[in-house]
Amino acid sequence: MTDAILAAAQGRQTVDSIQTSYMAQVQRRRLYGGLALLIFVVLMVSGFNVADDRNAGGFWDGLHQIGDYPAEVLAEAWEKRADLPALIAKFFPALVETINIAAVSTLIGAAAGLILSLLSTRGLARWPRLIPVFRRSMDIMRAVPEIVIALVLIFVLGGGPVPAMIAIAIHTAGALGKMFSEVAENADLKPVEGLASTGANWSQRMWLGVLPQVAPNYLSYALLRFEINIRASAILGFVGAGGLGYELRNAMAWGPGRFDEAAAIFILLFGTIVFFDQISSRYRNRLTEGHNA
User: Fold this and answer.
1) Residues 227/69/148/55 CA torsion (nearest 10 deg)
2) 80: which DSSP letter?
3) Tens of pLDDT, residues 104-150
4) Residue pair 233/245 in contact by the 8 Å Cβ criterion
5) Among residues 79, 75, 77, 73, which one has the least CA distance to residue 87?
6) pLDDT at 242 over 50
7) Rounded to whole angstroms, how far apart are CA atoms 169 and 109?
8) Is the pTM here over 0.85, yes or no?
C-alpha cells in the first residue's frame, strides 16, 4: 500500500514537472516570437523612413494622388474607345514578339536547367565532386535580376529582343535548375542501377531511368516559368528590349494624347497573361494530378 502511494506521488511529481517545463517552453517561445515581431516592425518602420527621406517626394504627401494617373488613362481611353480595336490590332505584332521572347527563353532555360539539375543532384551527378560548382552557378544565375543582365547585354549587343531572350533564359536556367534538382532528388534510383548493370552510360541512365519519373513535374514547372517569363519579357521592354513593354513605355512617356494607346496595350497584356495563366494551370494540373482544373 505504501509503495502504491509513493508511486502515485512520484507520478504526480513527474506530471507536474513535465507541465512546468512545457509552460516554460511556451513562454520562451512567445517571448522569442514577440521579440522577432518587434525587430521586424522596427526594421520595417526604419526602412520606410529612410526610403521616404531619399524619395523625390514624400509618400504621405503624394498618397492622395495615387489614382490620378489611372483615372486620366481610363478617361482618355473611354473618350477614344472607338479606336481601341484598331490600336489592339496595331500592337498585336509587339505582343507576338513578347510571347516569342518568353517561349524561346523558356525553352533554352529549361533545357539548360535540366542538364544543370542532373549534374547537381546527389546520386545522379556525372561528376559528384563538381556538384557544389553547378549549384553555386545556378544560385548566381537566379540571384541576378533579368533586368540587370538585360541592361548589360543591351550595352554590348544593342536594343532588341535578343538581349531580353538571353537575360530571361539565364535566369530561367538557374531557377528551373534548382526546382528540377529538388524533384530529381526524389527519383527512384532502382531503374538507374538496373541500367548501370547492363552497361548503360550516364546519358542513357538519365534519359531512360530518371526523366520518365520526373517529366510531369518538370513540364509543370516549365509551364509555370513560361507564365513568369511573359511578364518578365514585357517588363524588359521598358529598358529597350523590344516587345510590348517597349511600346508601353513609349505610350506612357508621351503622356496625355496617347493614353488610349497605353490602355490598348494594358488590355492586350492583361488578356494575354490571364489566357496563358488559365491554359498553363489546366495543363499543370493534368500533368501532376491527372485531371483538369
Assistant:
1) -140
2) T
3) 999 999 999 999 999 988 888 888 888 899 999 999 998 888 888 88
4) yes
5) 77
6) yes
7) 4
8) no
